[in-house]
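Dear Dr. K.,

Following up on our conversation at the group meeting, I've run the structure prediction for N-acetylneuraminate synthase from Rhizomicrobium palustre. I'm pasting the input sequence below exactly as I used it, so you can double-check it against your construct before we proceed with anything downstream. Let me know if the numbering doesn't match what you have in your notebook.
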Amino acid sequence: MSRSISIAGRKIGPDHPPYVIAEMSGNHNGELKRALALLDAAKESGADAVKLQTYRADTITIDAYGPDFMVEGGLWDGRRLYELYEEAHTPWEWHADLFAHAKKIGLTIFSTPFDPTAIALLQSLDAPAYKIASSEIVDLPLIKQVAATGRPLIISTGMAVWDEIAEAVEAAKAGGASEIAVLHCVAAYPTPPEETNLSTIADLARKLDVVVGLSDHTMDTTISTIAVGLGANIIEKHFTLARADGGVDSAFSLEPHELHRLVRDVRIAKSAIGSPRYQPAPSEVKGLKYRRSLYVVADVKAGEVFTPENVRSIRPSFGLRPKFLDAVLGKKATRDVKRGEALAEEMIVGGL
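The predicted structure tokens came back this morning:
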């Protein structure tokens, strides 16, 4: 597989800046106007893309009241799946407006489809990429259907064991995907930082030889920034206009100023990684003159012996290197040398 992919012309991989995806999810709170404002906020914050989730309540679950269809624990404890998804879903009739507005402001937009009808809708809108959600990583037929679009495919790995991840990637390849990215993910909302196990990112890259990243559900930007230092090429974060506005995902979503900070910090982190270097950085060159070297610190007459009293290692660096001090001491001066002169080899009888 390729260790780089391209979404809407933007190269993504180890040799490129981190690709930041702002996940809208249900943070539109059922208002198209708010959804459009979220696109504007993501653009202004510097995100590379906004991702939607394309489903209806009846395409992701069924309207049932049994215990199997109730949420236990977490943010949504006690809610019925159908009611939760009915509240959180992005109406299909909004999609065209959202895609058009994103194009107008120069922002990439794509989505996570949850069934074949969602894929068809997104195909009609020329979605430039697709995402497989963590809970759908076990739906290999769905993965193959999405892969058949030929567009880049991003797979989240929340809750998955290694065999499930490997099967999902193989299904994507079998379905025709040639550009695949895999995001390490902990599907807990919010995720405790100590459970993120970010070393998994580099291990995924090594085992799968694909573009890797992090779908981050922690409450801050720290974990995402660290992840870039550990090899993440993609960062996905939920975002909202204001957590105080409420909504199904608002509690673990970034506000615009935090998203802006995330974009800034992950790009700084990426630029700071660089490559192994054992020579002065360009910004250090001017400082070389202030390193230590050997200087005459008391007047020395021709033929006089150099001693610790008249030769020392001091700043700046225009004299012989300090490593030669032992070789200099005890030797005689070829000429008169004034206090403050940088010691040079020609001043030493017999040289070094």
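Two things stood out to me. Residues 23 and 51 are 5 Å apart (CA to CA). The longest helix spans residues 256-273.

Best regards,
J.T.
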